[in-house]
Amino acid sequence: MFDVQFGHYAPYIWSAFAITGLVLGWMVVDTLLAARRASDQARRQGLEEDWR
Predict the structure, then answer these.
(1) How would DSSP label each residue in 2-52?
(2) CB count in 10 Å sphere of residue 38
(3) Taking the model in full, what pTM does it have?
(4) Is 39 exposed, middle or buried (0-12, 13-18, 19+ CB in 10 A)?
(5) Which is nearest to 17 in space by CA: 32, 31, 2, 30?
(6) Each residue of 5-23: b (16+ CB within 10 Å) or e?
(7) How do residues 28-44 score in pLDDT, each as one tens digit?
């Protein structure tokens, strides 16, 4: 497998990886929720033909 040795910097690197993963995950979820809200709003306003 991988032979990764970060030495004394390991806590900083792994925490940076974890934070980056959380931020990217949050960005994806936020984008999907915003798209759903926009779709629902367009449907409520009768714009579903223009939406697709």
Answers:
(1) -----GGGHHHHHHHHHHHHHHHHHHHHHHHHHHHHHHHHHHHTT-HHHH-
(2) 11
(3) 0.71
(4) middle
(5) 2
(6) eeeeeeeeeeeeeeeeeee
(7) 999 999 999 998 998 88
